[in-house]
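Crash report, auto-generated. Payload:
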Amino acid sequence: MTDARPAQPADRTPTSNPVLRRALIWGGVLAAVILVVSAVLGLVFAGLPGLWGALIGTTMAVVFMGITAASILLANRFSGSDLFVGAFFGIVLGGWLLKFIVFIVLVVLLRDASWLDTTVLFLSLVAGVLASLVVDVLVVAKSRLPYASDVELPKAPEDD
Amino acid sequence: MDATTVLAEINGNIATVGYGLAAIGPAIGVGIVVGKTIEGVARQPELAGRLQVLMWIGIAFTEALAFIGIATYFIFV
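Recovered output after restart:
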């Protein structure tokens, strides 16, 4: 009796990978810009504590917002597995939970730090979060996703 | 004991209540987003890629509110 499964299983990698990867890259680029701007503003308005607040705030925003896309990319590596759906949501939601625990611990630790300006930290955190949302929306709006994950489509013309 | 006396007896940092409020919204939001994505992938597994992107953008917006909500701990005493 022959094996019913095809010798070369179809590639089931979800088509979202390029979009998420592009969002991470552009998020990083915009983060660098915001890092410089908020560091300069923090230094001007609040001195050295302001500089530290801006650096840590922007980094926190970008890293924590980026973890979602990174966790989806990581989970998609298991797309061939039978347990893919369970593993996917386990990794993505587990990463989400872990991220918020780390975030709350950081907030509690940095709350009373005298070497940084918490107002600057808060403002640059909000700026980083909003900027990362803008990048996410722009990347998704400009992306092209084939409907099906396991077929080979003709190559789309390069436009970006 | 009437309600005013009970409320007056509560002590501690009110920001903790703020954290609780900041956690409820995103918890419901992410729960709905992920649940609906599971539903969609179960109906049409080949659409997983598109649904993942939509799920991710939904999670991003929901968690942005949570981050800002929790981080207000920095500026409100």
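Post-recovery validation: Chain A has one domain: 17-142.
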